[in-house]
């Protein structure tokens, strides 16, 4: 509840992974357990074992209506095909024939084909891990961390600054303005700087406890 889940919509299922108990079929060893039930606006569900609870999970909506964003995990050169960037679709749709732009290098090229698990796709949607063949771009021009977007529909742009909510988990010293950590964002790995610490927030309530603190 504290971290934002509604307990009524969460299935609590006792199992023993070691003995395989109550995973695929109801267990006879826990007569006290009457079954799980969830209530949510999409409808109710109930059952006894783990596989039923997994089947009752509703798949999330894929953000296909947003602009294309595909962070590159790697770039390969494949004989007879050419340059093949690989990554996981985050938003939008990628089809053969799309003219993509790679940020931040601002390289524009056409997608010749899209593949997932060695099968050609007519369109890739968010969640798909795809490789796509691009024209007239060498492997050396692209690298992990670049982001592919549609050149005609809100292409990705660089940001001079942004406001972030940061959770400090385990840090030996104090953090103050000018602190320079390395940021991992999707597949990018880049140094950034805390220009201004705006406020300290209570971790439980989410309310501001101090404005413009000297350090955290």
Automatic annotation (TrEMBL):
<feature type="domain" description="GTP-eEF1A C-terminal">
    <location>
        <begin position="162"/>
        <end position="215"/>
    </location>
</feature>
<keyword id="KW-0251">Elongation factor</keyword>
<dbReference type="InterPro" id="IPR027417">
    <property type="entry name" value="P-loop_NTPase"/>
</dbReference>
<keyword id="KW-0597">Phosphoprotein</keyword>
<dbReference type="GO" id="GO:0003746">
    <property type="term" value="F:translation elongation factor activity"/>
</dbReference>
<protein>
    <recommendedName>
        <fullName>Elongation factor 1-alpha</fullName>
    </recommendedName>
</protein>
<keyword id="KW-0648">Protein biosynthesis</keyword>
<dbReference type="Pfam" id="PF03144">
    <property type="entry name" value="GTP_EFTU_D2"/>
</dbReference>
<keyword id="KW-0547">Nucleotide-binding</keyword>
<keyword id="KW-0963">Cytoplasm</keyword>
<dbReference type="Pfam" id="PF22594">
    <property type="entry name" value="GTP-eEF1A_C"/>
</dbReference>
<dbReference type="GO" id="GO:0005737">
    <property type="term" value="C:cytoplasm"/>
</dbReference>
<feature type="domain" description="Translation elongation factor EFTu-like">
    <location>
        <begin position="82"/>
        <end position="147"/>
    </location>
</feature>
<dbReference type="InterPro" id="IPR054696">
    <property type="entry name" value="GTP-eEF1A_C"/>
</dbReference>
<keyword id="KW-0342">GTP-binding</keyword>
<dbReference type="GO" id="GO:0005525">
    <property type="term" value="F:GTP binding"/>
</dbReference>
<dbReference type="InterPro" id="IPR004161">
    <property type="entry name" value="EFTu-like_2"/>
</dbReference>
<comment type="similarity">
    <text>Belongs to the TRAFAC class translation factor GTPase superfamily. Classic translation factor GTPase family. EF-Tu/EF-1A subfamily.</text>
</comment>
<dbReference type="InterPro" id="IPR009000">
    <property type="entry name" value="Transl_B-barrel_sf"/>
</dbReference>
<comment type="function">
    <text>This protein promotes the GTP-dependent binding of aminoacyl-tRNA to the A-site of ribosomes during protein biosynthesis.</text>
</comment>
């Amino acid at each position: 509840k504290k971290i934002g889940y509604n307990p009524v919509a969460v299935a609590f299922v006792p199992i023993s992974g070691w003995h395989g108990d109550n995973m695929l079929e109801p267990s006879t060893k826990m007569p006290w357990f009457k079954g799980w039930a969830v209530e949510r606006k999409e409808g109710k569900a109930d059952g006894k074992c783990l596989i039923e609870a997994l089947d009752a999970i509703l798949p999330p909506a894929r953000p296909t209506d947003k602009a294309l964003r595909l962070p590159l995990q790697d770039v390969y050169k494949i004989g007879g095909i050419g340059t093949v960037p690989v990554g996981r679709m985050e938003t939008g749709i990628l089809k053969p024939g799309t003219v993509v732009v790679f940020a931040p290098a601002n390289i524009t090229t056409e997608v010749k084909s899209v593949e997932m698990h060695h099968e050609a796709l007519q369109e890739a949607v968010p969640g798909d891990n795809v490789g796509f063949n691009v024209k007239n771009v060498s492997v050396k021009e692209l690298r992990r961390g670049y982001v592919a977007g549609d050149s005609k529909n809100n292409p990705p742009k660089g940001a001079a600054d942004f406001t972030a909510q940061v959770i400090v988990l385990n840090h030996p010293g104090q953090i103050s303005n000018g602190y320079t950590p390395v940021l991992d964002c999707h597949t990018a790995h880049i140094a950034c700087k805390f220009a201004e610490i705006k406020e300290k927030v209570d971790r439980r309530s989410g309310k501001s406890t101090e404005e413009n603190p000297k350090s955290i």
